[in-house]
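Backbone-to-sequence.
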């Protein structure tokens, strides 16, 4: 990901509230189109310019060609109300994020995120690097609303289980069971991506506690009951069911 400074020069008579509203609206639709990652974008005012700092998946993520209908509308509104076209300055690569996938052919996708990950949760099955969402057809109308909601919910559950205090068990269950509300939401997104791209999209089931390593190795796919132990570990996964497109790991406590 790159850190981008996005400047919005605006007319003298425009009130700060209106500027804030227009800028926030554009950033929100950029986010829903996968052009901006994360929902934190501090905005400062310098003279008659609002400056937002945001994370973008690639150097060219805010190019006009990637805009969807909502982005075009938000930019048109900004111009109409006295703003100017946003000016984008790249500050550099974010040091904490992974490189974007550069594979020439994608053979599979994995929907994967964690409590600290801010980047796209669409990962390449081969290199496991994130792929900007706008590289695939929208998963929800013109946008990626359902995918981004899943990412935000997953990240919240992962935070709760990491913090080990409030709703730890409930959050862990959501991430571990194939038929939890969170997993159904994620699997539905995977199904939509598989259908629109013709590329199999896998969903990860978190596994924290097991009785013993031996018992873990005997585990079957929780959805179809089939064998799914991999001969060789794939990224951080030990299990993979191609029929149900599920991935999992040997429980962390008995590894
Ligand atoms: Zn890749
Ligand atoms: Zn299965």
């Amino acid at each position: 990901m790159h850190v981008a400074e996005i400047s919005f020069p605006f007319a003298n008579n425009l009130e700060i509230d209106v500027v804030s509203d227009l800028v926030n609206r554009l950033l929100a639709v950029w986010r829903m189109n996968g052009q901006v990652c994360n929902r934190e974008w501090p905005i400062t005012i310098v003279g008659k310019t609002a400056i937002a700092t945001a994370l973008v998946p690639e150097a060219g993520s805010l190019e006009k060609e990637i805009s969807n209908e909502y982005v075009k509308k938000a930019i048109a509104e900004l111009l109409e109300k006295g703003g100017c076209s946003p000016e984008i300055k790249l500050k550099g690569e974010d040091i904490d994020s992974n490189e974007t996938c550069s594979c020439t052919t994608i053979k599979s996708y994995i929907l994967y995120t964690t409590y600290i990950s801010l980047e796209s949760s669409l990962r390449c099955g081969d290199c496991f690097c994130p792929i900007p969402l706008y590289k695939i057809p929208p998963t929800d109308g013109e946008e990626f609303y359902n995918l981004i909601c899943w990412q935000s919910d997953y990240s919240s559950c992962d935070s709760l289980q990491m913090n080990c205090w409030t709703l730890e068990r409930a959050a862990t269950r959501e991430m571990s069971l194939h038929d939890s509300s969170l997993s159904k939401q994620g699997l539905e997104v995977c199904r939509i991506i598989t259908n629109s791209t013709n590329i199999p999209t896998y969903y990860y089931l978190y596994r924290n506690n097991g009785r013993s390593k031996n018992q873990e190795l005997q585990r079957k796919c929780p959805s179809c009951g089939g064998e799914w132990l991999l001969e060789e570990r794939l990224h951080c996964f030990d299990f993979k069911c191609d029929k149900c497109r599920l991935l999992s790991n040997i429980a962390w406590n008995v590894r």
